[in-house]
Structure to design on (223 residues):
């Protein structure tokens, strides 16, 4: 746009050169926003039915935990058991370390009753490995494509992604009029405001209530 203005100025005698010419190729083009296929709310009951009948318990439970917590795939795949506290108590929580977070900040995930149930089932499948989702891969855990290919096999290629679970949760929680700050904190989005910097409490009680509502909503969709 700026170059076009200067070229017009040269043509009309208002300026003698285009100073933007030297910048061509020096500036990186802006990256486009990548859109992830997101499941529509009306399709959630059918999706859950297909997930229930999916053959492959570890993958199925990984998908369920992702849906209940809407964490990112890398945050999920490398989860280890010592990150979880108070699973038998009133305030179960998952502390995801900063080195696995996109924003490089420790992320606290309050756990619903349904999420704790998934963890118990995982423990029955895996009583030895420190990882929740161990596999015979170079890094010792399920690959980044494991859940994506499972969605393909379920018939959701191009229609749903694990990352899309985050968009689905955000949409429905906003529609249910939960506090936007709770939702953004749960999604671990960047918050450069003073409120975000000084929010030591991280809205845990509110987020715990919100995640329990979300888990109950999913349970009701199962029919």
């Amino acid at each position: 746009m700026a170059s076009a203005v200067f070229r017009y100025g040269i043509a009309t005698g208002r300026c003698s050169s285009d100073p933007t010419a030297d910048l061509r190729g020096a500036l990186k083009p802006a990256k486009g926003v990548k859109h992830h296929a997101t499941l529509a709310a009306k399709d959630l009951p059918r999706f859950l039915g297909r997930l229930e009948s999916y053959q492959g318990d570890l993958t199925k439970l990984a998908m369920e935990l992702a849906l209940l917590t809407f964490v990112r795939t890398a945050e999920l795949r490398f989860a280890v058991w010592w990150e979880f506290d108070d699973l038998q108590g009133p305030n179960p929580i998952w502390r995801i370390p900063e080195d696995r977070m996109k924003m490089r900040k420790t992320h606290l995930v309050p756990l619903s009753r349904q999420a704790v149930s998934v963890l118990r089932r995982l423990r029955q499948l895996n009583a030895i490995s420190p990882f929740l989702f161990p596999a015979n891969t170079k890094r010792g855990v399920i690959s980044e494509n494991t859940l994506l290919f499972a969605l393909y096999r379920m018939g959701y290629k191009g229609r749903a992604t694990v990352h899309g679970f985050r968009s689905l949760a955000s949409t429905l929680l906003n529609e249910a009029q939960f506090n936007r700050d709770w939702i953004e904190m749960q999604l671990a989005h960047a918050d450069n405001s003073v409120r975000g910097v000084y929010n030591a409490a991280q809205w845990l009680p509110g987020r715990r209530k919100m995640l329990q509502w979300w888990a109950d909503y999913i349970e009701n969709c199962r029919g």
Remarks:
- The longest strand covers residues 93-96.
- The chain is about 45% helix and 5% strand.
- Confidence is low (pLDDT under 50) at residues 29-33, 194-198.
